[in-house]
Amino acid sequence: MEEEETELRNPFPSPPSHYANYTTHNLRLLHLLRDRLKDQDVDISTVNQHDLLSDQTDIPPWPLTQLEKPRVDWILEEGHYDVFGDMWFVKETIPSLADLGGHQLYPADPSTDRRPALLSILRSLLVTYSNLTGAILAPPPPPYSTVPPEWQRQVEWITVLAQNLMAAANDLRPVQARGNLENMMQRQLELRREETASIHTKCDGLEARLLELRATALDSASHHTASDASQQGQSTAPVVTIEDVLRWAEQPT
Fold this sequence. Notes:
mainly alpha
């Protein structure tokens, strides 16, 4: 038994020893046993499988019902199941100190204000530390005394009080996680807003610069057009030479 427990707690456990029972023949026998009990209102685990399967061969000595799949309804009813020697709960919950077998001194209902109880625990812890100091300074008990020393009782009570403080702090872990997640998402939202505003500012600057460049290009184009027109007008005007003037002067009036 100890070897099985050790094997189950091994980080890489071997398959359970009964895995070899899941043969095709045994599964066929289980299916046949179900068919023969289909019309009978009896529990399959209470019948004699050897009598019902007397016409079959190689009937195992162990009950064929061991090959049945786990009952999910039973697991849901119990709320937990075992895997490799460890208990796993169907619904993941944080067990309270009372569920773990401890002496819980604060309200179990999370909706109840626990601050008064925690303040009382803290005051009790301080008083117990003071009592522990006095118990340590007290003279030792007689050698044959069966009464436990006073400091031992104070240490046990300090342990109970410290367990309650740690358990109450652990109960606040989900609240702390939600608060941290909210702060993280809020910071991410602020960063995205800042980045978006920076992008908008940069786009506005680029748009203004493009408008300036467009206006400059239009002015330059208009100047070039005017200069081209003036040059074209000068080139099309008639050129008068001296010969033309003399010929005009010699013409009869």
